[in-house]
């Protein structure tokens, strides 16, 4: 069973179904890919009793769902508690899609065993749902992705760079343009989720999705060259810009917490995922060709 219907949920469902697994996808809209082995159900994941009934008989529950970005501190604990209760009642394994916010600022490659030392509200919300899942005693693992990119991704790069580059327009970006940053492809994220659910060694700890590390400007440049688009025009949004934009849309105010330290790369160590789960990184150009 997969809770969520975004790009990662879809790729995960199709990979499982392609391997002959029966999949039930849960989302408020009841959306998802069409496949003979994929059942799509409209349901609210915070309706614990209904989610429990839908989970009965499932070997594994994956969650890729998330509340609206600016509502994470209030709503992530509610969503997580509902799913955790359903897993406990149904006796299923639990595979969570997470991210790297829980670590807080770091000054060296981040490893899965690092303490969850974030002090900001979104980072603490992410850390809390993992800590509560582990404390519950269920068979649980978390797959933590860096910033998403790839077909269907929903991220700073996909929203604020990708289309602008392909259309030859100025891209305004809320991160440093020339500092290396790790990016996880949607396909690699789905492959890591599936590999984790099938390996008993995965449970009880977190894993990092394989990631490519390059600057936003480098990634944009490679996209432009592959697409035959003009050389990217890019400018960094300042903290003041974000504050002003937040007056009209709370999303922008949430970006302050996740900006990396000025001049500090944000690099992911995914060596355990590669060595133990057998999932490697897809070449950047292959991911970008899929986007195009």
Notes on the structure:
By secondary structure, the chain is of the alpha/beta class. The protein has helices at 7-18, 48-55, 72-90, 121-136, 156-166, 186-197, 216-227, 239-245, 250-253, 255-258, 271-277, 284-291, and strands spanning 2-3, 23-27, 38-42, 60-63, 93-99, 140-145, 147-149, 170-173, 181-185, 206-208, 212-214, 233-236. The protein has a domain at 2-147 and 185-209 and 269-281: 3-Layer(aba) Sandwich (Rossmann fold). The protein has 12 helices and 12 strands. α2 (48-55) packs across α3 (72-90), α5 runs parallel beside α7 and α7 crosses α12 (284-291). The radius of gyration is 19 Å and the shape is globular.
CATH topology of one domain: Rossmann fold
Write the CATH architecture name of one domain.
Answer: 3-Layer(aba) Sandwich
CATH class of one domain: Alpha Beta
Flag low-confidence runs: none
**In angstroms, what is the radius of gyration?**
19 Å
The termini sit apart by 30 Å
Strand content: 15-25%
- Average pLDDT, all residues: 94
Number of helices: 12
* Shape call: globular
Percentage of helical residues? 40-55%
CATH superfamily heading of one domain: NAD(P)-binding Rossmann-like Domain
Structural class: alpha/beta
Q: For the largest sheet, list the strands in their spatial order.
A: 3-2-1-4-5-6-10
Q: What is the N-to-C succession of helices and strands?
A: EHEEHEHEHEEHEEHEEHEHHHHH
How many β-strand stretches? 12
Main beta sheet: 7 strands, parallel
Organism: Nonomuraea longispora
Protein name: NAD-dependent epimerase
InterPro entries: NAD(P)-bd_dom_sf (IPR036291)
